[in-house]
Amino acid sequence: MQTPPHREAASASPLLEARGVTLAFGGVRALSDVGFAVQPGTITAVIGPNGAGKTSLFNTISGFYRPAQGSIVFKGQDITRVPAPRRAKMGLGRSFQNIALFRGMTVLDNIKLGRHAHLKTNVLDALLYVGRARREEALLRREVEERIIDFLEIDHIRHAPVSALSYGLQKRVEMARALAMQPEILMLDEPVAGMNREETEDMARFILDVRAEWGVTVLMVEHDMGMVMDLSDHVVVLNFGQVIASGTPAQVQANPEVARAYLGSGDVQSLRAKLRAAATGRAEAA
Ligand SMILES: Nc1ncnc2c1ncn2[C@@H]1O[C@H](COP(=O)(O)OP(=O)(O)OP(=O)(O)O)[C@@H](O)[C@H]1O
């Protein structure tokens, strides 16, 4: 018997999985039995009202928090006990909700620092092939840095200190630094929070291009529901630390539980109308 095509798609190996993740801070249960999968090559978004557990989930995936129960699986490997820096080297790149750049340093130096975490040359290599390894590394580094600078259109500010940049540009530099690690999955924590419409449009374009041109899978946490619905292939909705819905943007928008979490009533028409209004606003601003 043949497997229907949609079944095949659903059973493709996920790049990343959260399985039954539970996390508590003292008496507060931030996450309860959270499970979802990120398929390679997709843009997946985690949304939910304030305090739903989005940041806790991100921190658990990137290794800053260890769950009380459950596991995180990346490329088929259980990484629940792998420390955060090693996860980054394995290909989990991330940006932060509150920009975590070195503000006194230039854009280029911040990007170089991101790249530094990816250095492959170990102590033995360095002892045996000092000259060649260094030269090759330097060449490759410069190539990656230039490609990122070009891609994110930040050439004009490469020597500017980060502190002198607008918020939108700082967010873009943070993305550049995360890309410098050449991640397989890029985790973006509220990539458009605090941005004006134009900056939001730019960032949305970069997120789509990261996937299209760099082949990077994207997992983001974002408050801007309209942007999420426009960009994502898959949306996971959290509320009070639990997954209340998961599916395509259209499926999530038609889910009364989601409308209840956001609007206090299960009226999916109102939810759709709200999203349409937001989309019209963005189109007018563009
Ligand atoms: N370090 C912490 N110590 C204690 N409680 C915490 C901590 N971090 C988060 N929490 C609690 O865990 C729950 C989930 O918070 P979390 O920040 O993950 O939600 P969120 O969806 O990211 O919220 P927001 O959209 O406001 O950023 C909340 O009740 C929050 O108060």
UniProtKB/TrEMBL annotation:
The residue ranges of the ABC transporter domain are: 16-265
Q: Which Pfam families match?
A: ABC_tran, BCA_ABC_TP_C
Q: PANTHER family attached here? A: ABC TRANSPORTER ATP-BINDING PROTEIN, CONSERVED COMPONENT OF ABC TRANSPORTER FOR NATURAL AMINO ACIDS-RELATED
Q: Where is the signal peptide?
A: none
Q: Which UniProt keywords apply?
A: ATP-binding, Cell membrane, Membrane, Nucleotide-binding, Transport
Gene3D superfamilies according to UniProt:
P-loop containing nucleotide triphosphate hydrolases
Top-level taxon of the source organism: Bacteria
The record's listing under PROSITE patterns reads: ABC_TRANSPORTER_2 (PS50893)
Origin organism of this chain? Comamonas flocculans
UniProt-recorded name of the protein? ABC transporter ATP-binding protein
UniProt cross-references to SMART domains, sorted A to Z: AAA
Q: Name one GO cellular component term.
A: plasma membrane
Record carries keyword GTP-binding: no
